[in-house]
Design a protein that fits this description.
Pfam families: Ank (PF00023), Ank_2 (PF12796). The chain is mainly α. 51% of the residues lie in helices and 0% in strands. It has 18 helices and no strands.
Length: 308
């Protein structure tokens, strides 16, 4: 999901010539853009009804020469559109590192936020633009930036499964256990998305294996429900809770309800109790038995014979 929104442009420009300038910035038509700006009849900071400028448009679409022309003609680098986004934000979001570097040369700031708290760093992390993130951090971006829902740069990188970026953020001081407001930690979101290598790195860097979000679910429970056996295997190396959680269920219950025979087998092999009751008095073993009778998984059958 696009957390920050696309560069939607309004067709309501200040003048017909301004409309032509926006078109030139979008298409990268430097000659036309220069002609319009040099005519003296187009404001270099002309806006559409959403507050977008030609510099934002050129930055979004990666047209560095147009960006250069606009800046040299006096465009305000740090103007914000209605959403709060700047030219730097859009260049970072789209991974245009050369434009990001150029904008910094002329005074771009990393401090501006969108209406949901988004910054250039958060946008770059959401889309996995590692080189851009390196540039932003070098120029003072705050690795602890958060959206207003609490999501951090590390959280967004974990959600996307960007392993090298995650290593960079952790080495830059990102907090591995910093959750969103709903309690969802980076480890939890990585487990939900099935990013086993990310899960491994986070656990090795001190991620709390049994951290729960507001609904009481853990990373293991979510991975079990999704049937992500690779993630389950990584989590089991760090001895997470296999019994009932505070929300009254267990990872094994979740695996059974999710229908993954391999996930069930892994959990039972690790010591999960198939006779454990959840708060609605449901035996894991009673749900698993149909899987056994159907012969869906040899490993599940073997685990059940040993543990039931």
């Amino acid at each position: 999901m696009n957390r920050f929104g696309d560069l939607t442009m309004s067709f309501k420009k200040e003048t017909p010539l301004a409309n032509a300038a926006f078109w030139a910035a979008r298409k990268g038509n430097l000659a036309l853009l220069q002609l319009l700006l040099n005519s003296g009849r187009v404001d270099v900071d002309c806006k559409d009804s959403l507050g977008s400028t030609t510099l934002m448009v050129a930055s979004y679409y990666g047209h560095k020469e147009c960006v250069r022309e606009l800046v040299l003609q006096g465009a305000d680098i740090n103007l914000q559109r209605e959403s709060g986004a700047t030219a730097l934000f859009f260049a970072a979001q789209q991974g245009h590192n050369d434009i990001v570097k150029f904008l910094f040369e002329y005074g771009a700031s990393t401090e501006f936020k969108t209406k949901d708290g988004g910054t250039a760093l958060l946008a770059a992390c959401q889309y996995g633009h590692m080189r851009v993130v390196e540039t932003l951090l070098k120029h003072g971006a705050n690795v602890h930036d958060q959206l207003y829902d609490g999501a951090t740069s590390l959280f967004l990188a974990a959600q996307g499964g960007y392993l090298d970026l995650i290593r960079l953020l952790l080495s830059s001081g990102a907090k591995v256990n910093q959750p969103r407001q709903d309690g969802t930690a980076p480890l939890w979101i990585a487990s939900q998305m099935g990013h086993s290598e990310v899960v491994r790195v986070m656990l090795l860097r001190g991620a709390e294996r049994d951290a729960t979000r507001s609904d009481g679910t853990t990373a293991l429970l979510k991975a079990a429900n999704k049937g992500y056996s690779d993630v389950i295997e990584e989590l089991l190396k760090f001895s997470p809770t296999l019994g009932l959680l505070k929300n009254g269920t267990s990872a094994l219950h979740a695996a059974v309800l999710g229908g993954s025979a391999k996930a069930v087998a892994l959990l039972i092999e690790a010591g999960a109790d198939p006779l454990l009751r959840n708060k609605v008095v449901c035996f894991c073993f009673k749900i698993v038995r149909p899987l056994k009778l159907l012969g869906k998984s040899q490993s599940l059958n073997e685990s059940l014979r040993r543990n039931s």
